[in-house]
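Annex B. Sample input.
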Amino acid sequence: MTEPSIQKRPFRGNTMLAVAALAMFLAGSAQTYGFSAYIDPLIDEFGWSRSRISAGYSIATLLCAIPTFFIGRQIDRIGSRKMMAISAGLYGLALIWLSQVNSLLALIAGFTFVRTAGFASLTLSARTLIPYWFVQRRGWAFSLLGVATSISFAIYPRLNAQLIEWFGWRTAWFILGVVMIAGLLPLAALLVRDRPEMIGQIPDGGATIKGRGPAVIADAAEDWSLRDAARTRVFWILLIGGTVPSVSGTGMSLHFMSIMGERGLSLSFAASLFAVESLVALPMTFLTGWLVDRHPARHVQTIAQLAAATAFVTLVIFAGPVAAIGFAALRGVASGLWNVAADTVWPTYFGKKNIGSIRSITMIGTVVGAAFGPIPLGVVYDATGSYTPALIGFAILPFAAAIAMRWATPPVRGSGF
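Annex B, continued. Sample output.
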């Protein structure tokens, strides 16, 4: 088959991108912002304290880190298509399990099951599919995954709350489970293909990017194993830097209403700030896709960390609704920049052959960060009666990560740590 005949066929990568974006959107019910609507109904029905439910959620999040490395290796072995379909099915069953829980232990087991299948396996399958289909347009493709996540962030808290109001929390979880099994599972199984070469196509459909900066690498010159990647300095800079948004993001999501209430803001106003963050993150995500297709991703990541640091400084120094809106907007800038750049940089630096194994380690870092993120806020508040000292710490972390990004240059074999 000649290259011209290949390029005349409709490019299937856009279909892969659509299914991956849908997976990222539907994974929202396994994120902290998706679960937040269920906390009060669980307290009302079972009489569990908020701290017990929060602790159970953190334990479940931490436990889901254990199988994540195995999931990454399985993606490298059997491909994203099979893992995405399996993840969708298991995720749906986990949500149905949650609809039947009657004990705290069963709830923690359900949380663990959902976080593993949804937060870890499903999103990892989507993220590892894209690099095979898009190289020169990789930033653009990952920006659409970021848009799907932003829309999920804006919709799921209100959607879940509405489902609970209409049907009750048990039926709400059951409905979400059925959607996963009847909707995403067959789409992944029938439409997804792991590589364009499997159906006689080439990455990007043969498209090229004009105006690319000279320092940008479209794809790594060779594939790195996880062991070799872990021997480089940039691997650890990217890994540790990637846990910072997870720590602050999960911590803020779980304590957000209380933090804003401490600053004299109503619950309804605080809830609207999620929409502000999403509305800013949405165009920022598109812009980031354009940027990382033309400029080094580490520069974009540096700006993202500085934006996050500035957001927390704004929240600490200033008070009132304007400061809160500024905080949410800056968080939207940070998340829009970071998520796309972080997804793009790993295959660009380390190749695609072992991307599942490499990204599984980054996912473990995200999971651990998410598990421990809420703890400093709770502990500091209990000890001091204020969230401010913890928020100062949350400002320092991304600032330090921004400085470290200076050394996050492409790895060179044999150069040492």
